[in-house]
Every structure is written in C-alpha cells, then in structure tokens.
Amino acid sequence: xxxxxxxxxxxxxxxxxxxxxxxxxxxxxxxxxxxxxxxxxxxxxxxxxxxxxxxxxxxxxxxxxxxxxxxxxxxxxxxxxxxxxxxxxxxxxxxxxxxxxxxxxxxxxxxxxxxxxxxxxxxxxxxxxxxxxxxxxxxxxxxxxxxxxxxxxxxxxxxxxxxxxxxxxxxxxxxxxxxxxxxxxxxxxxxxxxxxxxxxxxxxxxxxxxxxxxxxxxxxxxxxxxxxxxxxxxxxxxxxxxxxxxxxxxxxxxxxxxxxxxxxxxxxxxxxxxxxxxxxxxxxxxxxxxxxxxxxxxxxxxxxxxxxxxxxxxxxxxxxxxxxxxxxxxxxxxxxxxxxxxxxxxxxxxxxxxxxxxxxxxxxxxxxxxxxxxxxxxxxxxxxxxxxxxxxxxxxxxxxxxxxxxxxxxxxxxxxxxxxxxxxxxxxxxxxxxxxxxxxxxxxxxxxxxxxxxxxxxxxxxxxxxxxxxxxxxxxxxxxxxxxxxxxxxxxxxxxxxxxxxxxxxxxxxxxxxxxxxxxxxxxxxxxxxxxxxxxxxxxxxxxxxxxxxxxxxxxxxxxxxxxxxxxxxxxxxxxxxxxxxxxxxxxxxxxxxxxxxxxxxxxxxxxxxxxxxxxxxxxxxxxxxxxxxxxxxxxxxxxxxxxxxxxxxxxxxxxxxxxxxxxxxxxxxxxxxxxxxxxxxxxxxxxxxxxxxxxxxxxxxxxxxxxxxxxxxxxxxxxxxxxxxxxxxxxxxxxxxxxxxxxxxxxxxxxxxxxxxxxxxxxxxxxxxxxxxxxxxxxxxxxxxxxxxxxxxxxxxxxxxxxxxxxxxxxxxxxxxxxxxxxxxxxxxxxxxxxxxxxxxxxx
Length: 845
Known about the structure:
Blueprint: H1 2-14, H2 20-36, H3 42-61, H4 65-82, H5 92-99, H6 104-107, H7 114-135, E1 172-173, E2 190-191, E3 205-211, E4 224-225, E5 232-234, E6 237-241, E7 247-251, E8 257-261, E9 273-274, E10 280-282, E11 297-298, H8 318-322, E12 337-338, E13 344-348, E14 353-357, E15 364-365, E16 374-376, E17 389-390, E18 396-397, E19 401-404, E20 407-408, E21 421-425, E22 431-435, E23 464-466, E24 471-475, H9 490-495, E25 498-503, E26 509-514, E27 530-536, E28 539-547, E29 553-557, E30 567-571, E31 585-589, H10 608-620, E32 635-637, E33 651-653, E34 658-661, E35 668-674, E36 704-710, E37 726-731, E38 736-742, E39 767-769, E40 773-776, E41 783-788, E42 794-799, E43 809-812, E44 818-824, E45 837-842
Parallel strand pairs: 1-11, 2-39, 4-9, 12-15
Antiparallel strand pairs: 3-45, 5-6, 6-7, 7-8, 10-13, 13-14, 14-16, 17-20, 18-19, 19-21, 21-22, 23-24, 24-25, 25-26, 27-28, 28-29, 30-31, 32-35, 33-34, 34-37, 35-36, 37-38, 39-40, 40-41, 41-42, 43-44, 44-45
Helix pairs in contact: 1-2, 1-10, 2-3, 3-4, 3-7, 4-7, 5-7
C-alpha cells in the first residue's frame, strides 16, 4: 500500500496537487517496516498516520460523510485489523492481560507496546465518532419552505397581452385530462387535481399495471434505446407510444388495452436514439370557437369502445413498401384508414413520418396528408439517410397547425440533415411555412427542387405554444460537430443554443434568447420552455422559464424575450482549438443551479486509491471552470453535457408560482482528436458499428473527432463527490431556492444493493399537483417518489420493476379517483433496468 500510494502521490505532487498522498505513502512504508519487524511502536506509529489523515480529511471536507469515507475507509479498516488477533500480532486485550502479569514482557510478544495499541484504539474511537457525527449532518442540504399563498388575480398586467391578428386563444383543458406532453401546450406539467395530498399520499396503492410487450434489446437497437413516454389522457383513454414506435390505447380506469397500431417502420435505420416521448392530440374541429373569441374550453371527446385488434394489422404490401420507402408513394405504407377523423393523434416515427390516427379506433386518418394520413418529413431534406433524422419528441398542435422539429445525428459528420422547423395545416397536412436557422428569413415553403440548409441547428426537444400571443417557443440545439465550431455561419451562430419565438402565422422570428454563445460543450437547450404568468414587482407578466444543461433557469418575458430575473454576461475561459474561437462572455441567470467550480479536494472514489487516481486525472485535464474549451489535452466539462436539466424540464404550480426541479451534476471529459482523413476511425477503436448504426463522435469532414466520456474513477464511479442528484423548490417570483435535498439511492447502481441515499443522477421530468404533491421517477434507482412541494420531504415511494426515466402524469378516472401514471421501461444510456410497465396508482376506494 505504501509503495503504491507513494508513487501515485509523487505523480500527483508533480502535477501541482496535494502532497498528502506522498506523505501518507511514506508513512505507510514505515508502518509496514515496523510491523514486519514487530517493533513495539508499530501500532503507535500507525495511530499517528491515521490521526493525521483524519485531521487532513476534516480540513479538506469537514463533516461530510461520503468524502470522509473515501479518504479514511481503507486506513480505518486497516487500523481495526491491526488491533485484532487475526493480524498475527497480539491484540489490545492480549497486551493488557500481559501487562497485568509478572511475565507480561514475555507474553507481549517481543515487547509490543500496550500504550501504542491504546493510542491506536483511541484514534479508531475518535474516527468512528467523527464518522457518526458526519452521518447525521448534511452540508449540502438546504431546508426551507415555499410560499403557500396563491398569486392574486387582481394585479394589473404590466402590458396587456395582445394576441396576433386573427389568432385564437389558448385552449383550456378540463382538470381531469392530460392533452399534451406537458398537459397543455404551456408545458407546466401541472395537474389541477387535489384528491391526493401530503396528508393521504402514504395510502397510495397500485391500481393497475399494463405491460406493452416492447422491451429494448432487439437487433439494430442503438445504445440509447429509451422508454421516455408520458401518456395522454382524453376521455377515459390513455394514449402512449413505445420505443419501437407502437401506439397503444388503454382504458384509463382499468388499464385494459383497447387497440394498438404498428406503423411498420423501416428496417436498417441509422439510429443514434430510439425513443418516443409521446403523442400529440388535436381535439375535434367542432370544438374550435371563433378565432377571435379568446380561450376555448376543449370538451372531453366521447370515444367509443373498439376491439383491441382494430389497428394491429398492416396492409399486405406494407413490409415490401417499407424497404423502398423513398421511391414508393407514402400512401402505399399507410395502415387501415378511417373515412375522416374529427379528432387526431399525431405519432412521429423513427423513419421520418408524422402519422395521424383516429383516437377512437387507431386507424390512420384518410382526411390528412393528401389521403395517405401521413406526412413525409424527408421531403426537401438534404443528405437522405433514413433514421438519421426524425422527431423523437411530440409535435406541437395548435388549432390550425402541426409544428414539427427533429433530431439529427450528433457528431457523426458535417453532412447531416437540416434542423428546419415546419408547420403543416392541421386538416390537410399541407406545408404552411418552414423556418430554417441556416436560412432564417425565408419562411415560405421551398420551391420544387430546393432543399433545406444541411447541418443547420435542430430542435430535438419539446416546444411550447401560446396561441393567444401567436407564438411557438422552440428550444434549439447546435450544428454538428458540437465540440468544434470553426466553420459556423453567422445565422447558425445566432440561433444555436437559443430559445426562439416564432410567429405562428408566418414562422418568422419574433425574438430569440441565446443561452450559450458559440456553444462548444453540447449545451443545447434540452427542455421544453415552461409558460406561466408571473407577478413581478406587483405586475402580472406573461413569462417563460427555460431550463438549461448548464443549470440556468432563464426567466423571460415571453412577449419579447427580455429577462424578468437579472441575466449577466460573465467572462469565460479562452483558448479554443486550432481554427476555432471562444466567446468572450457567457450569460448567467440570477436563478441558477450552476455548481461551484470543481477543486482537487472535490475528487472522490470508493477508496483512497481511486480517489488518488481521480486527483491525478483532474490535474492532467484542462479545467478553468465552466466553459473550459474542448482541447487535444482533454478538458473537464462541468456540468457535463448530460445536463443539470435535460429533456424532462421542470414542473410548476402556476397558482403558487413555484417550481419543482430535479438538478443533476455529473462531470464529463471532452477530448479533441485530430482527424487523419474522412475514412479512418479516430475514437471508435473497436471498429465500425454493426449494421446501419452510425459512427458517433467521429465528425467526418471536420478537423477533429471528439472523445466524450463521463469523468469516472478506475472503478467506474464518478470522480466528483456526491451528491449527484437533488430535488429543489424555487419561488419563481423572487428567484430564490427555498429548499434543496439530495435525492435517490445507490441501490440499483452499486455492486451490492445498499440503499444509501447519496443523491443519484436522474433523467426524466417531474410533475406537480394542486394537492401540493410532486411526483418524480427519473432518479437512477428504480423508484417513484412523492414529495411535499412545500418543503421537499419524501412522503411516499414505491419500487418500480424497471427504470422510471419518463415523466409521470395524473388524471381523473371514470370512477372519480385521481390516478398517477408512471412508465417504467429503463434508459439505455444510463444502464437502468429495461422493462415495459405502465403503472397507475390511486387512493383506495
């Protein structure tokens, strides 16, 4: 031990790190020498080593259990062993007995010192006392309560919202319904139901469970095959999709399957992700009031029962047509059709289609898409490669339009598809406008023969819409490659990593707000913007809250994009790779979960050995705080591109004007690898991927490939100390974080299933209810939990059969009970357990 720690400690010291490891390595060598020679003060010397290490550990991290444990666990256990008979030397009891005997000096085995053993025993006791004290203290916890009062409805607006000419109002969804990914187009993830409260949630029981039969692991599945769906609830039906693109309708009260539809997607797709986050819903057109009449209440659609097999069969020619889909009219690939659909479900598919289905039967709507019931998103798209472009997120549905973005391959090449945003007529499927960030001023449908701008920034996440103001709010990503931007155009630079407000009628930019300038860290805007009205300085203002991967919550006026909470431009590290540059400053919000910069003392590991390895790795990487540019040396990116916030976003109570958030903290390593040519694999050393799966992070056509990986120890643990995941409550009116608690255990992450509440990462979104309860299942242990929104206490939990990396939702069943639905299917990139469960919870009858 001494030799290994001394060698590593000298290496660390040569890099400018702590000299402690070199010193303790030397001290361990002396201990070993004394022990081997049965020197009387071997134990006494080790007591000094352990006591000094304890003092050093307290100086570095204080009474923080997990960092203390990583520094002292091996030394403490070794000290215990040295006091036992099993060490091959007399125990403390033996020495005491020997001292009491006239022949004690002989029985003490060549003069072993009772005082040295007593000193070691004392240090062991003190170390144990410190450990106990640190176990009951959490320096990372923020205790407090959110304001309980609802916002006043009598405050005068700062500026009266002025709807765009001819635009309808925002539909009002009935309290027991869930009509969009975020319940409504506002993206609040708020259920206005109050049957379940902090007082009774402990009685919540499983009401029913449904298994879809669709589990990841099929041939051709990419690593990131994920189950991220949030179901819709319309009438007494739930509608959901699966990773392999099945659409399923369930009875919302019993969980019984009513129908399922298989879109028969193409085989051999170039997939980086395989997922479906959800469907979109268009109410019956008869529900639409006069466009100038303001808000429209959407009635519950009366759906009739249908046989479970109504839409399972595809036409005989579907499979053959699918294999040659781009040469075959899209109508040849449609399923059974209805004569007309008064209401529609919209399903995005991995082969680049948007299919309109009847909520009643699951049949394709013949009155959409020119009779095909479908839109082909590859129309006018450059660089045809099926699977490389599609909409992983639900489309935006307004009373007039279906608005669609899509994901493109990250870091595969510089010849990818366009990130164009398109609006289609909701009745006919005809293209109305297209906004291409690479050609932002020309929004009229392209003329025949033209294509959209290759490689322009895309929007893979969920957009929000305010029909009263006439704007759709689009979270934008980056132009590949993410880590090198030396050839980006001015238009690309302007709209990358921004939230962009587009005019619903024309697609033109009304305003945009950039969350990262010249993004080199894959800090694309990942989450759906959340829209609500906030009371700011005594005035009610239409607001937009935009979570980001770097931990900012930008609170903006959604009419203009002006910040409602202060935003400052702070200096950023400089020194980009050859041919590139970095922005001089980066925006920081007054409401932020940006973590403090990492220090060497923040390194962690299960033992002192892997912590030492992490300290060495920390000093070998380039790191100057957040926004350290990627480098050939290798740069530490913290927060990493996993994101403090990702596609799950946040949940808000619009009445109390508070947010329930789930920040995650993981560091990543970004290393640029110079490319030799456009054919050699630079970072995928195990050879090209199988089948049509893309060679990711190779950046063909750019000067550099990118090696991207989590910053972990040789044992595979995060190199930064826990907690890695929290839940936190925010007052959006003031920007204050009222409470913040570590969330989740390592039960499903550690080799031994120990339920230590270390605070684990999460991916997936939260949901809040009017009853004052929040639900979240995204932590990387297989649990769904309920929290008291007031103070963040966990007040209920249940074990899930698989990873719960999806956003829960809530509704009222036909029996009048409030249900909470959680999808548990796992996430391929995080390694959580795969499954296919849809679980509904309710209070007992």
